[in-house]
């Protein structure tokens, strides 16, 4: 038997197969044969556990009533400072390093999500299933980012990319085993759902980065600000629960964070918009500092304050960047709509009966716990940027870039000859 056949045709021992089947049977029996008395017993246990959670007549899980909240607050604060410090350092290093950071985050997110449906007995009988999942992951990464590495402007499917996907499909078919079909097809579907979720948002994120670091940094910063101030306002003032999916979220934290985020968006856009290396788009894969002519969005314009401003206010006129008005829309989305990505993640975790997706960040959980709102925000930022800000008109630079990228030398010479003939005729 060849080495490939050994790796694909690995068989579990009869004892391992019986243990897996026994575990499945016990799980099915526990789900199916729940008598009314059993359900009643479960309800009583739930009531008793909820009664034990009542401390000093307060059954609420809100942070304002948590006895250990200051300890968790300090742990969370230290982790936040380290994350923000690392984030600022990577942003300062430039486009390619930010893109690399996005790729690393993708890998950690995929690892946490892959582990949600892992079952030790089944994985022991299917030793290659983890490698197959990661093969799908890196094939999708090659497919999504291959056009960026090759500097292609059109999302094309090359022969190599198609071959990788075909090998993945064949590998999966060859590893199917009797009595493991349901688990294997479940893993197959789960893996592709993860790829869709992870790579959809990250491709938009990378596109925003190359349009200018500003369009990545501002939306990401607004989500960070919203998360921080939602926690602070809920920590000190939270009294009214916001949503059952996330019991620690409060209306006070939601409203306080919304106001803070919208105000921060207006002033942050003014600060970031004055740095050319943040606003210039990146057209290649170089790592040098960018220099470009400032876009009209980032050129200050005088703005006269409305008449209802009190007379004691010292300024009657101020300089405003046009992009600051767009930043208000981003701030509004980051404070009102993007948190629903966090609510979705909370419901997802409840479905799997877990507290966090991982434990890689002390006080925060896993990487996925920090990226739930960022995923929604990145998609919106890209759509808003392409719909209302980026010019869709065709320019000479874009046409020349397409010619140099997609045409061979002979085709370029033929095009040059034809253009010369057309100009000569005119």
Query: What is the number of independent domains?
Result: 2
| Broad shape | flat
Query: Radius of gyration, Cα only, in angstroms?
Result: 27 Å
Uncertain stretches: 1-9, 31-40, 42-59, 151-157
Helix-strand topology string = HHHHHHHHHHEEHHEEHHHHH
How does this structure look, described?
This protein is mostly helical and 426 residues long. The protein has two domains: 69-392, no CATH class; 393-426. It has 17 helices and four strands. It has helices spanning 3-8, 14-32, 36-52, 69-93, 95-114, 120-125, 129-149, 159-174, 181-211, 213-237, 251-272, 276-279, 323-336, 339-352, 367-389, 396-406, 409-425; strands at 241-243, 246-250, 301-304, 317-320. The protein has a two-stranded antiparallel sheet. A two-stranded antiparallel sheet has the order 3-4. α7 (129-149) packs antiparallel against α8, α9 (181-211) crosses α10 and α9 packs across α15 (367-389). The longest helix is centred in the middle third of the chain and has 31 residues, at 181-211. It is a multi-pass membrane protein. Its cofactor is Mg(2+). It is found in: Membrane.
């Amino acid at each position: 038997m060849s080495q490939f056949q050994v790796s694909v045709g690995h068989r579990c021992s009869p004892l391992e197969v019986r243990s897996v089947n026994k575990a499945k049977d016990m799980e099915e029996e526990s789900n199916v044969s729940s008598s009314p008395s059993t359900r009643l017993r479960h309800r009583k246990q739930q009531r008793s556990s909820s009664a034990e959670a009542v401390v000093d007549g307060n059954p609420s899980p809100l942070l304002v009533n948590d006895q250990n909240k200051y300890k968790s607050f300090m742990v969370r604060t230290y982790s936040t400072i380290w994350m923000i410090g690392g984030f600022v350092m990577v942003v300062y290093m430039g486009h390619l390093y930010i893109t690399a950071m996005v790729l690393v985050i993708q890998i950690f997110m995929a690892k946490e999500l892959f582990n949600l449906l892992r079952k030790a007995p089944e994985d022991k009988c299917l030793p290659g299933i983890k490698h197959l999942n990661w093969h799908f992951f890196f094939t999708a990464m090659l497919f999504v980012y291959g056009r960026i590495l090759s500097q292609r402007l059109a999302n094309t499917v090359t022969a190599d990319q198609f071959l990788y996907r075909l090998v993945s499909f064949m590998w999966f078919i060859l590893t199917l085993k009797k009595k493991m079909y349901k688990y294997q097809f479940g893993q197959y579907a789960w893996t592709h759902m993860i790829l869709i979720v992870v790579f959809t948002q990250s491709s938009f994120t990378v596109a925003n980065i190359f349009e200018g670091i500003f369009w990545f940094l501002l939306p990401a910063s607004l989500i960070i600000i919203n998360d921080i101030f939602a926690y602070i306002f809920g920590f000190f003032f939270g009294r009214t629960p916001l949503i059952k999916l996330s019991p620690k979220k409060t209306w006070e934290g939601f409203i306080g964070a919304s106001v803070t985020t919208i105000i921060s968006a207006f002033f942050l856009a003014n600060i970031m918009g004055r740095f050319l290396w943040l606003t210039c788009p990146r057209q290649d894969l170089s790592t040098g500092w960018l220099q470009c002519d400032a876009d009209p969005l980032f050129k200050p314009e005088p703005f006269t304050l409305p008449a209802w401003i009190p007379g004691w206010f010292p300024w009657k006129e101020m300089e405003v960047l046009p992009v600051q008005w767009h930043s208000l829309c981003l701030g509004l989305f980051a404070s009102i709509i993007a948190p629903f990505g966090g609510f979705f993640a909370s419901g997802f975790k409840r479905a799997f009966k877990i507290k966090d997706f991982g434990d890689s960040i002390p006080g925060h959980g896993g990487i996925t716990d920090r990226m739930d709102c960022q995923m929604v925000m990145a998609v919106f930022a890209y759509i808003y940027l392409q719909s209302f800000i980026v010019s869709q008109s065709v320019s000479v630079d874009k046409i020349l870039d397409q010619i140099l990228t997609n045409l061979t030398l002979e085709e370029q010479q033929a095009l040059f000859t034809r253009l010369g003939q057309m100009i000569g005729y005119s």
